[in-house]
Amino acid sequence: MSDKVSPDGSELDLRACYIEFGQYVNARSAGISDTPRPGPEECLGYARSGGLQTIQDWDEVYKVKPIKAGMTLCFETEVGNIARAEVTEANWKRYPSGTGDVYHRPSYTFKTTAWAPGE
User: Fold this and answer.
1) What is the enclosing helix (H) or strand (E) of 115?
2) Where are the alpha helices (DSSP H) in 17-119?
3) Which of 5, 15, 33, 63 could form a cystine bridge with 46, CB 3.0-4.6 A?
């Protein structure tokens, strides 16, 4: 997860897009697992069930906090690869702005495993 633009040709993009945008998810499908370490087929099922999506309003991301430590996220990329991302850290930092507004920004750490279709 990065605030930087993903390299051309990346299969998966999960990004905190600064204040104006919120959380950005670019994958064929993205979901949240009910089990901590699903295998590839189970993770693909969780990805296809959905639940993890782009959220346009940054304040809404802070209110909902859709990604939390201990969660497992599952993704299916556009070319059919599967990725499991275990959230090991999810921290929020408060930032005041020059206009007196306050905003919060996440910092996530993942342990990720990826599989090619049929593995």
Assistant:
1) strand 102-115
2) 18-21, 40-49, 58-64
3) 33
